[in-house]
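Quick check before the chapter quiz. The format below is the same one you will see on the exam, so make sure you can read both the input and the output lines.
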Amino acid sequence: MLEFLQGLLAIRDVDQIGILLALILGEVGLTWMLGRKFYELKDSLCSVAMGLFYALVIAVSAATVLAAFYWVHQFAIFDLDWSSSVALILAAYLVVDFLFYWYHRAIHEVRLGWAAHVNHHSSEQYNVGTALRSSFVEAWFEPVFMIPALLLGISPLMVVALLSLNHLYQYWLHTRHVGKLGFLEHVLNTPSNHRVHHASNLHYCDKNYAGTFIIWDRLFGTYAPEVEAPVFGIRHPLETRNPIRATFHEWVALARDIKAAPSFSAVMGHLFQPPGWSPTLGHAETTRALQQKSLES
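Here is the expected output.
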């Protein structure tokens, strides 16, 4: 059992392309047999282009990230072999999944992070191909949030591998073919829970950040069940199938706002306040404020 688990630790994001492509082909076949319209060719090609670019950046940055991880790991608080038992491997996975939750929450609720992540939500389709939409910038942002795991003594290779397994788990969540899964909805991130996360319905926005375990959302007040039909995409639809525009449009908007900012504090606000914040309106147009206003009306 331990040898099997340790073998899984060798999996890297760039090695998962074959698995993801197999899932996509399987879902495309099922979608075709059922006569559903869950795929659109230009949208899917846009997703593939972004996915390949992300995989390239992951491959190029891997050595640098791993070297940085080893440097941080020398300051670890605990000298513990986290791979020595099934219980410790599972505990390490919980740590990584917990940190992923906060990373995922940050890139939604801090505009600098949202500029990197918005392209993952830009498609108005929802299928396994959507999982390919990852930003090249996230390859550099995400490792920063794994530093606490390294300081707990989890080895750099194990952190990278468990994070890759976490990503692998999330691929199958991007589907409309799987309904609710009973009691698992209370423990795991499921297709139903993740559909909520990808929806632009106001009360669904900024919900269900979990990687594997939905318990983090339930604990920290960011959980929402799938009740009404999700409307996929972002609140202000991008309406493009161009992967370059889909990747960079929010960076352009952020640069425009920074250029027009009246003060240094306004610049910092544009960078680190939630999306929707402005120097004139403050938080009035952020997701949380709009949700609260909707509840009060």
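If your answer matched, good. Residues 2-180 form one domain.
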